Amino acid sequence: MTRMKHLPAALAAILFAGGVCAATAEEAAQLGKSLTPLGAEKAGNKDGTIPAWDGGLAKPAAGFTNGAKRDQDPFAGDKPVVSITANNMEQHADKLSDGSKAMLKKYPSYRIDVYPTRRTAAAPDWVYANTAKNATRAKLNDKLVPEGAYAGIPFPIPKTGAEVMWNHLLRWRGTDWQKPFRSYLTTAAGKPVMTVDGTADGSMPYYYKDAADKFNGTYWTIRLVNSGPPIRAGEAINGKLNLDPEKDSSYVYLPGQRRTRKLPNACCDTPTPATAGVMSFDEVDIFGGRLDRFDWKILGKKEMYIPYNSNRSLKGKDADLLGPNHLNPDGVRWELHRVWVVEAKLKAGQRHLAPRSVYYIDEDSWTGALADRWDANGQLWKTLWSLPVTMPDLPATTSITFGFYDLVSGTWFVSDLVTEKAVQYKQVPRWPEATWSQEALSGAGLR
């Protein structure tokens, strides 16, 4: 894993350089040249199985309107180049995560259909411009908190694992949106149980391009209001994530109590009410937590099979995607992409249910596509996944739906499933600041 494949010598030298956090002017000058504007290698691979980046997909399909379903597959005519099962897994083992291999071994019905690689990731020009500025001005302080970054990828030429993870946390996915969704926990016996049916209102103040002077470090805000299942109808939660995790805050409204309460420990391996306690806070969207409990290390950049451009997962009914033990393989598109491989190991003196994790971060979009987590006994416990989809109207390629497979218990979970929703990640005008207040949370949750 530590061996770098097809990585230019100059970039390899940058990766393993120590002590300097910001890129030099010479390094940053490669953005838009040998590197994409967001920091990926622009060239394809030597085998031709990964093409060169040519600008991504930034033009919506004819007839698409904001707020409509995003289930139009821009590559519906593609056929798989290979289908991987337990029978031929060893031929492709170097391009599979530990979790993917474990799923192939555990379930004969599990299959990875690999399609031609389409490098669709894109962003607005102003995000590219700010990314170039961040390359030389952003750095991590001794608390692993970014300083000097705004409105772009903070570390497009990363040198540390923590920088790669901040690129994932601060990746471009729009500024303000609304997303009705459902979540399901499927039992080991194969029965899906709906845990959430609600609407998420979200924003990324970090990307308010006209508000740099007002930015207070809060980079992500969310309000989730549940309409079901009946036992959870009326529940509501809001959260604010800050570059400085000591300033994070989350509140929950419980309709049975008619009260809004502050969550005392809204981080790390604490179960999050947003998933009915099925996922921990730092498992949301592959990784959504604070970094300071772990030591982060780049294991390398590697060509891997990851879910990508899976707009097909947004089509049909929920049941079409929900298999008894895993997602229906017909609904997931996999592609070969270069990913940053980052390992997290628990620091001495800290506690966490998963003392070791490995994350696979797409180099083009900085979206976390896969992750594996080991328990305190060193046993591979969970494999996490997301389903990046292309959104040319933003433009962006990023995830909507995510979840995990529990390799020990046999249960699995899918969150933010929008398949049956008429609105699938709608861009909206900037949410008023009052949206995230405790009063608004109480009002939204009344039933």
Automatic annotation (TrEMBL):
Pfam families: DUF1329. Keywords: Signal. Residues 1-22 form the signal peptide. CDD domains: LolA_like (cd16329). Transmembrane segments: none annotated. The keyword DNA-binding does not apply. The keyword Signal applies. This is DUF1329 domain-containing protein.
